[in-house]
Amino acid sequence: MDQVVDLSSLPPGTRAKVVDIVAGAGLRARLLQMGLTPGTELEIVDRHGGVIVIRFRGTVLGISKGIAKKIFVSPL
């Protein structure tokens, strides 16, 4: 079975696939609408303090560490 970790635990340069988003309905819906859906591959671009910068589907997005802890991924 693949390892599943929360997004906040990965270092820059890591590629991963989204497994699940465990968040309230509003946040989950917002992330899904932005295209961060299960199965999506992403890359950790950088970390600035409490912000994690990710790239997926041609989009670069900065999310808080708190939100990143709710996104579960499998490193590639």
UniProtKB/TrEMBL annotation:
| SUPFAM superfamilies found in the cross-reference section | C-terminal domain of transcriptional repressors (SSF50037)
Keyword annotations of the record: Iron
Query: What terms describe the molecular function in GO for this protein?
Result: transition metal ion binding
Domain Ferrous iron transporter FeoA-like, chain residue ranges per copy: 5-75
Q: Which SMART domains match?
A: FeoA (SM00899)
**UniProt superkingdom:** Archaea
Key word Iron present: yes
The answer to whether keyword Cell membrane applies is: no
Q: What is this protein called?
A: Ferrous iron transport protein A
Q: What species does this protein belong to?
A: Ignisphaera aggregans
